[in-house]
Predict the structure.
Amino acid sequence: MKIATGKEERPPELDTFAAAFAVAGERQKRGADEATLVLLKRFSGNPDVQKAKMDFELAQKVEEKFHKDFDGVDFT
């Protein structure tokens, strides 16, 4: 709490720790996204799957915009 409220300095190790998880998480997320698209393409003739694919792609665009707008913003 003290770090979040600015009463204590943020240790540099905390940034290193967070960065390591961000990189690992991004690799896993990218792999899952690619596998999802491959699976959706396999069943592309099904109208429900087509709708799911469009919803999935829209969600990816929303997420990308969110990261573009808010990554690096300091909310303290």
